[in-house]
Amino acid sequence: MEINQFYQINWVRRIFLAWLITMPFGAAIGAFSIGFMTIYPNLVLTCFLFIVVSPTIVKWNKILLSFFLLLGVWVIISAISPSFSEAAFDSHWKFDFRSLIMQFCYAGIIFGVYYRIGAAVFRKVLLQGIAFFLVVLIASGIFEFYSGIHLSGNFTDKLLDQTIVNNNFYSPVFIYDNPNDYLLYLIGLMALFLGLNKVERWKSVAFLLLAFVFAFTASSRIGLILCLLLLSIQFLFIAKAHLKKKQFKKFGFVTAGMASVFLIFLIQPVFIGPKYVKGEETTKGDYMAYPAPVFDGMSSSEIRKNLFLNGLDFVRESPIAGIGPGQFRHRHKTGSVKYDTGTVVGPHNYLVEVISQYGLIGWVYFLFLLLTFVKFLKETIRRKDFYEFCVLFPVFGLMSLMSSSFLYLNLNWFMVPILLLYSFVPNSIDKIVDVEG
Fold first, then answer.
1. Terminal Cα distance for the chain, rounded
2. I want to staple 227 with a disulfide (CB 3.0 to 4.6 A). Which of 3, 212, 367, 425 is the partner?
3. Measured CA distances, 263 to 208, 268, 269 (Å)
4. Where are the domains of the chain?
5. Element (H, E) at 340
6. At what angle are helices 91-117 and 2-22 packed, to 10 degrees?
7. Coil, helix or strand for 405?
8. Mode of pairing for the β-strands spanning 298-299 and 294-295
9. pTM listed for this prediction
């Protein structure tokens, strides 16, 4: 029996690892179309792994089971929603419906694998998968940053329309075709890795500084805030460790030196360099005149504000059932909104995206997230530990404002079940400290 159980755990562990290491590439590698849908390795592994671990549902924690059932009800309601509303079974509905199915499957896999292979093995494989994902993102980011070479897409099409070569030309995008989405994955996975694993502080600082450079290149304000938040936490831990060991002089010299360099580059004029600006612009002295991004005559802040106001109108219109899957984008594309947003149709706000389209079920979903945060915050205060895992919740909140749509990102499907798992399963959080990665 023990030998048989060992082989079963080992077999599921390998499938789980394969699922994790195919996740970064999505449909970019090994994909083929069968007409109505595209098949790719991670999708096949998602379906297979979901079926394999689903029998463990009888062992699940009641909170996890309730959340999983909520996601299932969400899928069912979305499947029939157009039949009882003004929404249509169009491409917008299909896009959101697919996201909800995948969100349901990801939760089932995370919970099921945990109960199938055990907390220690689960965490070890999970960290291996996250580390692989980060290696892919960092390697791609460094290459794109230094070369300016990207995969062709809407992002590169927009670059061709610009008259001045600026820092956005060197913003990493990987396969996501958007610098903000790339930063979401990079910063979110870094925060998750740090929350689940004890990493040497200065190594963490080095990788977070790299993410900061990428966020600066992409002119991502929320990305910069996230990097500064995570860096501040790392420096606080470093300061605490040095002060505890009474290494005041060593810590003081290092901190003062780094702060001085940062201050100089912050207050003094900065030459960006020919890599980011056309030579003719440099000779005219215009290399510092980077205008704020303007879309259709409106600033990014104005567009976000109007998207939010339109979302509130949708909530008032249908507070219980919501306006339907994909209807936020559809109504903005057809101009059926009060506030103009130009060509921008994505909500850029996860709360508004979910509540406006799905009504009451969206409120219940966010109630789960709020309870998860409160539960873990209480545990952190009681034990005076797990601060880095606890910071994942505000990080998640800021991340949800970066992308045009947060519901469709597999980082979201992946991260939320992990937060619930380590918040509500008794003693699971101890594995973060007790088990070597």
1. 27
2. 212
3. 18, 8, 12
4. 2-265+307-434
5. none
6. 150
7. coil
8. antiparallel
9. 0.86
